[in-house]
Design brief:
The protein is an alpha/beta fold and about 525 residues long. It has helices at about 20-30, 45-50, 70-75, 85-100, 185-200, 225-230, 235-240, 260-270, 290-305, 310-315, 335-340, 385-390, 400-405, 435-460, 465-480, 510-525; strands at about 10-15, 35, 105, 110-115, 120-125, 130-140, 160-165, 180-185, 200-205, 215, 330, 345-350, 355-360, 360-365, 365-370, 375, 390-395, 420-425, 465, 530. A hairpin with a 4-residue loop joins strand 4 (about 110-115) and strand 5 (about 120-125). The relative contact order is 0.14. The protein binds ligand NA7. Ligand NA7 binds near residues 144, 183, 185 and 379.
Length: about 525
Amino acid sequence: MRTNREDSFDAVIVGAGFSGLYLLWKLRGQGLNVHLFEAGEDVGGTWFWNRYPGARCDVESVDYSFSFDEELQQEWRWKERYPAQPEILEYLQHVADRFDLRRDISLHTRVQSSQYDEDTRTWAVHADGAEVTTQFLIMATGCLSVPQTPNIAGLESFAGKTYHTGDWPKEGVDFTDKRVAVIGTGSSGIQLIPEVAKVAEHLTVLQRTASFSVPALNGPLDPEFEREVKANYPERRRRARASSAGVERGDNEQNALDVAHEDRVKEFDGRWGKGGFALLGAYQDLMLTDEANDTVADYVRDKIRATVEDPDTADSLIPRGYPLGAKRICVDTNYFETYNRDNVTLVDLRKSPLESITPTGARTGDADHEFDVLCLATGFDAMTGALDRIDITGVGGERLKNKWQHGPTTYLGLGVAGFPNLLLIAGSGSPSVLANMVTAIEQHVEWTAELLGYMSSHGYDTIEPTPEAEEGWVAHVNEMASYTVFPKAASWYMGANIPGKPQIFMPYVGGCVEYEKKCNEVAEKGYSGFVLR
Ligand code: NA7
């Protein structure tokens, strides 16, 4: 391997978020000639686009960061317990500069299409203003990178400005003294709403589905905690990698239903007091049965009732009809408290359906709501959206989009039958969004880098899963999901937030540890389930 022409590469990476940047560093270090295409004006991936006020990661900063370089993890100083978007973006820019990655990155260059050539065993890649060929095409395109704008009647007629949280203007938006509306109360809406409420004259929240949310208990990073983390970083990273969620949550092995109500509440209280995802690790069966899930769901419902002063508003904010965690749980700062402010109104679209957006606001079942600015916090075409938007053609002219018309099929989430040397990072069929993304990404990047090294040293040019291995993995991913309550929510994990999208549970629920074990076994057996040529 190692091509030398400027338009011909060993590997082309698409996307300069956490995955793409690490992969570029790793493959370049193995002597490969690599190029990366990124649609944004700068590196950062989802953290480049999601700049709305309050945007913050729900995994703690000391864990939501790269472990591959000891000096980097020692020198970088996170400001807060949970990193805000500007800080994560700054971190990724620093990584790009520190490891001199930019010289192999074309920014502002969106990959439009790519075709596999069976004769040359290479991929032709067509990006804005660039035509290149590559042996490996590696999609580091992210799980939440294509914003979803809903088809709401009259949306185009709105006379004020409309913004989407997933594509927020770089220059920011001034809400001071404005009448603002937010549609969407998932993680993005729940982070945005308290920030807008602080400055807007009035905020109207148009809520279709109430979300479960736990307090982040965010704050400046405690210097003593930081010292302790840095003194033991390799061990902390090892424990994260050995945890099913890719981050230590102090998971309890007990079943919720084996414990008395008072003891459960004590356990939940302790975890609620720690903030963030710790609550999900309270009992090992919380995501396995409705009965177990109800114990924690009811606990959170009580917290909402106790926080929101107006009983009708509280009632509308109580999540119902789906298990806690089956739609990704939100981690907030003063979300429910925000509804106690005089300048905030909740419109419950279940009671008063959204009929249309009008030039001056919104019409719901029983009222007109006037506002100057509309914020859509309406989510993403998750997991497959970015891949669907690139016209990828494999063996025999088969289009990936067509192959995936009934849902994404992969082997280990890493490869696709009929698409030789197309590799996917942290997407469908792997733990990805159910884990600390950075842990999941590091595992995938390292596995991929090792694979490319193996192929080079063994004289192989191509790798592709067998259809049988792919079928077996898809069946396993579905079977694992069926043992849980995850598929019971109309979530983006299921593709249910996009009209017409096939509904299958896309991420792998078996946990990072089992998953990594499986990937390593496959590699140890000379990449069993793949055909190498
Ligand atoms: P989510 O979690 O997909 O939330 C989108 C929200 O937008 C959700 O409350 C939706 O309600 C709402 N929505 C979507 N379309 C409509 C229409 N047409 N009318 C009213 N409300 C609508 O996206 P986020 O950006 O908040 O978070 C995505 C992930 O990013 C998150 O899980 C973290 O991992 C980070 P619905 O539930 O569909 O009724």
